[in-house]
Amino acid sequence: MSVGSVRRSGRVVVIGVGILGAGVGWNLSRQGAEVVFIDEGRPGEGVTNWSFSWVNASNKTRRRSYFDLNVAGMAAYRELARAIGPDSWWYPGGHLRWADDPAAEARFLETAELLAGWDYRVEVCTGAEVRRRLEPALRVPDRTPILFYPDEAWVHGRHLVGRLVGRAVESGAELRSGTAVCDIGVGTDGSVRSVTLSDGSRLDADSVVNAAGPGASRVAGLIARHLPMRREPGVVTRIGCARVPVHRAMHAPHVEIRPDGDASVVLHSREIDALIDTVEDPGELARLLHESAKRVVPELGHARIARTRVAHRPIPADGFPSVGAVPAVPGYYEAVSHSGITLGPVIGRLLASEILSGQRDEMLADFRPERFPESGS
User: Per-residue pLDDT for 1 more than 90?
Assistant: First the structure.
C-alpha cells in the first residue's frame, strides 16, 4: 500500500477511557468511525473518578487562549447535556470561592475584576447573602466577600464516561477493559499500523489516540516520543452523609467541597496535597481534609470518611494540554491535559474532527504536541 493511499482499516484505537478518551471516542463513533476503547482498568474509574470535577474557566487566567479553551469547554457541556441528557452527571449550580486572609482575598477580587473584563459572569456577595440565598449550612462571617460564578458546574465524571462509552458502543464501538497497550506498531513510512495489548491480542489501527492520563508518557514512549509530565499527586476523599448539606462546588479557606450525589461529599485541598510525600497513611490525609471541611460546614461533623485515593494528575510539563497530531508519526494523536473534566467535551469534539478531516482547529494552536521534543535523547 502506498503512503498516500487510503488505509484499509479505518480503525481508531483510543488508549485510556477517562473523560478525554471517552469524549474523543464518542465524537468519532457518532460520525461513523470504527472505534476501539482500551483501558487498563474500567472506564471512568481512574483519575476522572478521583478529581474535584469542577467545570470552570475562572481558575484558568494564566494565558488568554487557555481561558478561551476552557470557556469553550463550559459551552460544550451545555450542548452535551442537551445531546445525551443531563441526568446523574451534570450539576450546573455555580461555584463559590472565598478566603480567610486579606492577601488571598485581594487576589481573588482582582481575578474577579479581570474575569468581568473578559465578559465572564461573576457576582461578589457577602457571607450573609450566600447563606440566605445559596448555602445555609455554611459557617462564614456575615461580611466576608464571596465570589459566585453562576455559570460554573460540577460533573460526576464516572457517570458521564459511562454514558458516552455506552452511546459509542451502541454506535458500533468496541470496549476492551482490563488490558494495557504494550506496543504501537508503525509501518516503513513511520505511520501507525497496529496496537499490541497485554492480553496478547494485536489490533490493526489506522490511528491511535493517547488519552492515557498519568500513563500518557509511557504510551508516548512506545513510539519513541518524549512527553514530559509533571509529578503532581492529589488526594481526594469521599465522605458519606445522611443528608448532603451543600448544593454546589466551592473553594473555601483551606479546603474544596462539593456534593457527590445524594449521600456523599467530595473533599480536596492543595494544602493537603503538599503533605502527600511526608504522610504515609492516606487515612491521615483524609482526616485532615475532614477536619478542614467541618470548620466550614459544621454539619459534616456527622459524616464518615468512606473512600480516599491519591491520584497522579495528568499534567504536561508546562501545565497546558497536549492535544492533536504528532507530525513525525502519522496516525498518532494526543489528548493529555489537566482540567480534563472541563475540557473533555471540547477536546473530544475538536480532536475527533481533526482525526476525521485532517484540519487543525485554531483553538488548539497553543496546545499542540509538537511544542515538546518529538523523541527522547
Answer: no
* Cα angle for residues 14, 17, 18 (degrees, 5° grid): 130
What pLDDT is recorded for position 10?
A: 84
Task: Supply 210's cell numbers.
Answer: 493517547
Q: Which residue spans within the chain are E strands per DSSP? A: 11-15, 34-39, 54-55, 90-91, 95-97, 123-126, 145-149, 153-155, 174-177, 181-186, 192-197, 202-204, 207-210, 233-240, 249-252, 255-259, 264-268, 304-312, 322-325, 332-336
What average pLDDT score do residues 342-353 get? Answer: 98
- Backbone torsion region of residue 324, taken as left when φ is above 0, otherwise alpha when ψ lies between -120 and 50, otherwise beta: left
Amino acid, single-letter form, for residue 209: V
Cβ(43)–Cβ(240) under 8 Å? no
Confidence bin at 7 (pLDDT 50/70/90) = very low
Phi, psi (deg, nearest 5) at residue 308: -135, 140
Contacts of 177 (CB under 8 A, 6+ apart): 17, 39, 41, 42, 43
**Contact yes or no for 200/5 (Cβ under 8 A):** no
User: How far apart, in whole angstroms, are the C-alpha atoms of residue 273 and residue 279?
Assistant: 10
Look at the chain and count its residues.
Answer: 377
- Give per-residue pLDDT as tens, 9-45: 389 999 999 999 999 999 999 999 999 999 999 999 9
Helix (H, G, I), strand (E, B) or coil at 218: helix
The residues facing 204 across adjacent strands are 194
Bridge partner residues of 298 (DSSP)? none
Q: Is residue 297 pLDDT above 60, yes or no? A: yes
Helix, strand or coil, per DSSP, at residue 343? helix
| pLDDT tens for each residue of 267-280 | 999 999 999 999 98
Query: How many Å apart are CA 265 and CA 257, to the nearest integer?
Result: 7
String of DSSP letters for 219-286: HHHTTT----B---EEEEEEEE-SS----SEEEETTEEEEE-SSSEEEEE-HHHHTTTTT---HHHHH
For residues 272 and 346, give the distance between their C-alpha atoms in angstroms, rounded to a whole number. Answer: 31
Which candidate, 308, 236, 233, places its Cα nearest to that of 267?
Answer: 236
Nearby residues of 356 by Cβ (< 8 Å), 6 or more positions away: 28, 31, 33
Tens-digit pLDDT profile for residues 241-267: 999 999 999 999 999 999 999 999 999
